[in-house]
Design brief:
The complex is a heterodimer. Chain A has 13 helices and 8 strands. By secondary structure, chain A is of the alpha/beta class. Chain A has a single domain, classed as Thiamin diphosphate (ThDP)-binding fold, Pyr/PP domains (Rossmann fold, 3-Layer(aba) Sandwich). In chain A, helix 1 packs across helix 7 and helix 3 runs parallel beside helix 5. Chain A is globular. Chain B is an alpha/beta fold. The radius of gyration of chain B is 22 Å and the shape is globular. Classes of the chains: A alpha/beta, B alpha/beta. Chains A and B meet through helix 1, helix 8 and helix 9 of A and helix 7 and helix 8 of B.
């Protein structure tokens, strides 16, 4: 036995919802939060705890989902929730899971599997907190889920650029000018791929989008059931920062998938499984052109044909050149490929 | 020796750039009229959220000393002019850092003015605006609410028309020539905009409002715990779990009792329960969990919790089953499902009437595709009186994506 556990690692066994009619009616994140109209991240919170159920503790690092939800001595949370600092969603998840385990071992609380979910925004998770999240994903004896809700900017403080902001987007740090049109020239980080590739003992990493609610909830349920530290990356259209009519929130989520900009997949025990519309793309369905997605957003209103072409080219590369399409940007040398085949 | 204090009440993000242009315009017009001025936002509104009501202030004074005297406070407690750039705010304001509902005219001084952009009549607006314990004036500038996003501005001249109207309301502080000069010198100004401001000056409609007029409802309010009543660790009690609607069927969640969010709404969903196929999409995709599950399996949008984003209309697969309708044509937050249950034929008449009136229903939240504002403005830019049906045609059925 190589296991180092001193107490049980049991998790709640959460079977996937078989269809939208089977989803539980109870809400554990309810109305009365101060988010924008059409906020997809609020929807992610709602679906995340709906999937996790009542025996859940949620920890939130600073960001929209902290500031807008639990302001001025009021809350929309039905399950216990605690704030943690910007970069510390990983530490909070690990500490809470370890604390619960210790209390149960000592008999100070009833021994039962309790879900621990820490969420972070793209600023808190992918920029500041990536170190702590990475550390947590190596602690395999503690059950916790880290959910990154990615609205592609520091949206709470009025849209500053983050490491997850897509190429060329208009933010308060990258306003297009007359002399120079594209100020933000970096390509977005690949968080889910990075977490899956870099943490051999993390058993489950997934990408989700709340436009596909049931699949999204089932990924959360799978992550909590499988146990150990797990990671989910959710792409959340943000009507404020992306600048679109809030009624398009759902549609933009779908378009992000259908254009291939954001792939839906899960990596369970190192096996990559595409699902939903992404699976169809992998199996040969044509991707929609990225312009259909980009031109619905004010943050790309300054794009010219040239910029649209560049964006399309980068997305094509993800699908055509990467060793595991849209998951990890590794490419094997032709010589290595040949050598492996000879063996 | 006097000062003019203005507040600009607007929809967060959608009108953020509009409000800051108005506030800056007031200050620069004051300078051109030989006076002093300053503009500032309300700290508690930042960071803003789409649609949640917010405020900017602008102060004009005869002398620099008087201006400083008015600046030496956190925010004005009384204002001479309340500028309201969306008429659905007439129902009251629950800003995100404030407790309870505030009438739109709450800070307006006796005999002060509420200046509103609206296509409604005085009588219709006074059904929404709460009664005030002093007479005041209601001034209307005929226009649709001008909504745009954070990055793309909608150049429909609303900001300069407000400035022109303000010169009419407060001639002692802002001269029309001063306003015109300021507009011409602004980096977003033009001769056409100066002409729009002058037209607005001429066309402003004003009427006295007595203490007996207005909505008699008492705005909702509550007491928050004092600091010595707070729990250890400043913990907050969680919201209790919800209950079935009736006889063990359906589901109604408990909600945050201290922030209702409905004053964020500028459009509301109207549901046709007869054509509903119970697909669950509106319920599951609503970011505000505003849909209560009814015993018959249909979904009733709770009007205390709905903030009017329109995602339900977008995801509903049945044509005209959920239609977003301009909030200004409703008078209460009553349950549509209860109305339907009581009298189905009467509900159908009500519903057809509400969704059929395109003049009232058409309203755009903001950016939908590149080139949208340019398309809309072709019909909009008479600027003296805006074509009220301009906007995106066929709001519901033609934009189905599911």
């Amino acid at each position: 036995m190589a296991e180092s556990t001193t107490f049980t690692n049991a998790t709640q066994i959460l079977e996937p919802f078989r269809g939208v009619k089977k989803v539980t009616l109870e809400e554990y994140f309810t109305s009365g939060h101060r988010t924008c109209q059409g906020c997809e991240s609020a929807l992610v919170m709602k679906l995340m705890v709906k999937a996790a159920g009542p025996r859940t503790i949620v920890l939130g690092s600073t960001g929209c989902m902290y500031v807008a939800n639990t302001t001025y001595y009021t809350t929309p949370w039905v399950v216990p929730w605690m704030h943690t600092q910007l970069g510390s969603s990983g530490s909070a998840a690990l500490g809470t899971a370890a604390g619960l385990k210790a209390l149960m071992r000592k008999g100070k609380m009833k021994a039962e599997p309790i879900n621990v979910i820490a969420f972070c925004g793209d600023g808190g998770g992918a920029d500041m907190g990536v170190g702590a999240i990475s550390a947590t994903l190596t602690h395999k004896e503690y059950n916790s889920l880290i959910l990154l809700y990615d609205n592609e900017s520091y949206a709470n403080t009025d849209i500053q650029l983050s490491g997850m902001t897509p190429y060329g987007a208009h933010t308060t740090f990258s306003p297009p000018g007359k002399a120079k049109r594209i100020i933000h020239t970096r390509w977005k980080k690949n968080m889910a791929g990075m977490m899956a590739a870099g943490h051999p003992e993390c058993r489950y990493v997934a990408t989700v989008c709340a436009s596909y609610a049931v699949e999204m909830m089932n990924k959360v349920r799978r992550a909590l059931t499988i146990g150990g530290p797990t990671f989910i990356h959710s792409l959340d259209p943000c009507p404020k920062g992306w600048d679109y009519d809030p009624m398009l929130s759902h549609e933009l989520g779908e378009l992000a998938i259908e254009t291939g900009i954001f792939p839906l997949y899960e990596v369970e025990d190192h096996q990559v499984r595409y699902y939903g519309k992404t699976k169809a793309i992998v199996e040969g369905r044509e991707r929609k052109p990225v312009r259909e997605y980009l031109l619905k957003q004010g943050r790309f209103a300054h794009f010219t044909e040239e910029d649209l072409e560049y964006f399309q080219k980068k997305v094509d590369e993800m699908w055509e050149k990467w060793e595991i399409p849209a998951v990890v940007p590794f490419r094997r040398l032709e010589a290595t490929k040949a050598a492996l085949e000879v063996k | 020796m006097a000062a003019l204090i203005c507040e600009i009440v607007y929809r967060g993000i959608f009108q953020k750039n509009l409000a800051s242009r108005i506030a800056r315009g007031i200050v620069l017009s004051a300078r051109k009229s030989g006076r002093w001025g300053i503009a500032f936002g309300r700290y508690g509104d930042s960071p803003q959220r789409n649609g949640i009501p917010a405020k900017d202030f602008a102060i004009v004074a005869d002398t620099n000393e008087e201006l400083e005297q008015n600046m030496a406070r956190y925010e004005p407690k009384h204002v001479d002019v309340t500028i309201c750039v969306d008429d659905t705010l007439a129902k009251g304001v629950e800003s995100w850092a404030w407790y309870g509902l505030q009438p739109i005219n709450r800070l307006t001084v006796p005999n002060g003015t509420v200046l509103m952009t609206s296509i409604q009549s005085f009588g219709e607006l006074l059904k929404d605006i709460h009664r005030k314990d002093a007479p005041y004036k209601l001034a209307l500038m005929r226009a649709k609410a001008s909504f745009s996003g954070l990055w793309v501005y909608r150049e429909d001249h609303t900001e300069v028309r407000i400035l022109g109207a303000l010169a009419k309301i407060a001639p002692a502080f802002l001269s029309l020539d001063g306003v015109s000069q300021a507009i011409a010198e602004m980096d977003w100004g033009s001769d056409l905009k100066v002409a729009s401001a002058r037209k607005a000056y001429e066309r402003l409609e004003t009427r006295e409002v007595t203490m007996a007029e207005g909505n008699p409802e008492i705005p909702y309010s509550f007491e928050m715990p004092k600091w010595w009543e707070m729990r250890e660790g400043v913990t907050i009690p969680a919201i209790p779990i919800g209950k079935p609607k009736e006889e063990g069927k359906g589901y109604v969640p408990e909600r945050n009792p201290y922030f209702k969010k409905y004053t964020t709404r500028t459009m509301r969903p109207v549901v046709n329960f007869d054509t509903c196929v119970k697909c669950t999409l509106c319920w599951i995709q609503c970011p505000d969990s505003c849909f209560d599950v009814m015993p018959d399996g249909t979904y009733d949008a709770n009007m205390e919790a709905c903030c009017g984003c329109g995602v339900c209309e977008a995801v509903c697969p049945v044509e005209n089953c959920i239609t977003m309708v301009n909030e200004s044509v409703f008078e209460d937050n009553a349950s549509q499902w209860e109305m339907w249950r009581k009298d189905k034929p009467a509900y159908q008449v009500w519903l057809t009437n509400k969704i059929g009136d395109k003049q009232a229903t058409v309203r755009s939240h903001g950016f939908r595709f590149r080139g949208q504002y340019e398309q809309e403005l072709k019909t909009d830019l008479d600027s003296g009186g805006v074509e009220i049906t301009a906007g995106i045609p066929g709001e519901n059925a033609q934009h189905k994506t599911v």
